[in-house]
Amino acid sequence: MPYVLYWIMFAMELKGLTYTSHRLDPGKQEHKAPEILVLNPRGKVPILVDGDFVLYESLAILAYLELRHPQPALFGITATETGRIWQRTFEVMNYARDAINNGVVRPLIRGQAEPAGDEIKASAIQAHNALEWVESVLATSPYLAGAALSAADVSYMPIVQGVIRAGRRKDARALELGFDQFERDYPNITAWLGRIEALPAYDRAYPPHWRNE
User: Fold this and answer.
1) HSE on the CB side for 32, CA within 13 Å?
2) pLDDT 10s digits, 96-116
3) Which of 54, 55, 145, 180 is the most exposed place for a label (fewest CB within 10 A)?
């Protein structure tokens, strides 16, 4: 959940929007509090409140922000650009997210490396396959959908950051998941991530509590 919230904040920073961010602690089940369930009965974040309008689901929020604040465009200008960006975004969501987030990152963060080691190893194989696909895409273009930063990059960036952070953990190295030499094994993704991290919007959106981890 924190990673999804982060890329919504990053998108808002890219568009130069003023907003107030409320961090919810999942360890304390704050996302299940009554005042949050009023906004989203599913008890999940991110949730966007714009005046009297409330919206949840991350891609829906991105699409809403794009129409409300068209510049800079994150979903392209032409039909061809828009189609390509949505294709890449859904590829990220459908094929590159679950194996990494649900199969590797979350179990490691929750301290499940020992009891769920075999399952994590199996998911790591799928995660590497997904990363290799992205590595090949970025061999021919600076961003996932072409020459310009788009919603596809915004949505995939924290997923990559998550596996890099989790892959450096001692328990991840003990399982030999193969993520501890990320920069060496995935140079195109590393360069892509560097281009994103160099943007002022990236630094402004970066969660303060991550800096000391």
Assistant:
1) 4
2) 888 898 899 999 988 898 898
3) 54
The helix or strand, by DSSP H or E, that contains position 157, with its residue range, turns out to be: helix 151-167
**Quick check: 26 and 37 in contact, CB under 8 A?**
no
- Mean pLDDT score, 36-53: 87
Whether residue 212 is predicted with pLDDT greater than 60 in this model: the reply is no
CA atoms lying within 13 Å on the CB side of residue 201: 18
Sign of the C-alpha dihedral computed for residues 131, 137, 141 and 147 taken in this order = negative
Structure tokens at 45: 């974040």
- Which residues, other chains included, contact 126 with Cβ-Cβ below 8 Å and sequence gap of 6+? 99, 103
Which residues, other chains included, contact 62 with Cβ-Cβ below 8 Å and sequence gap of 6+?
A: 8, 11, 74, 75, 151, 154, 155
pTM equals 0.89
Backbone CA torsion sign across 105, 107, 113, 118: negative
**pLDDT value at residue 2:** 41
Q: Are 168 and 104 spatial neighbours (Cβ–Cβ below 8 Å)?
A: no
The residue whose two tokens read 């979903």 is: 75
